[in-house]
């Protein structure tokens, strides 16, 4: 328990997803239109060339996008669709999916997600790269490790995703 009820609930929800447990995903920041999901890179998550598999990046983007939207729309949300653009191969010890709501209405939110790796041999400084939302982007100033979801580690941008998330309709009771 973190002492932050919203973050604790987000972690409980993520832990209820068997696939999220399988890949070892963790919610490290949650609230105010933002969510950060992290996972450790393991050999079984790599593709044939030794890079983190694109499906793992897509999973992380989808979940981070949905969690961020949940801070604006409430806990019952569903991804309507998302796209991902791979910038470079994902190499490193950990993957960070940092998502922020770009726009939220009553029933729909548009969310952007940056996917970054840390601890890679080929890391480059991403200072100055256009970022996510207000104050969430890689290299945004003031920035730094003191912000929620910021690690203080050098981060390499490997993909950018955008998604649309809908508030879920409550389940209907079957007619008697």
From TrEMBL:
Methyltransferase is among the record's keywords: no
Catalytic activity entry: a medium-chain fatty acyl-CoA + H2O = a medium-chain fatty acid + CoA + H(+); a long-chain fatty acyl-CoA + H2O = a long-chain fatty acid + CoA + H(+); a fatty acyl-CoA + H2O = a fatty acid + CoA + H(+)
Protein name (database record): Medium/long-chain acyl-CoA thioesterase YigI
The species this protein was found in: Streptomyces fradiae ATCC 10745 = DSM 40063
Protein EC: 3.1.2.20
Organism phylogeny: Bacteria, Bacillati, Actinomycetota, Actinomycetes, Kitasatosporales
InterPro entries: HotDog_dom_sf, PAAI_dom, Thioestr_dom
Record CDD domains: PaaI_thioesterase
Region (Disordered): 131-152
UniProt feature, compositional bias: Gly residues: 131-142
Keywords associated with the record: Hydrolase
MF terms (GO), sorted A to Z: fatty acyl-CoA hydrolase activity
Residue ranges annotated for the Thioesterase domain, each copy included: 49-120
Protein family according to the UniProt entry: Belongs to the YigI thioesterase family.
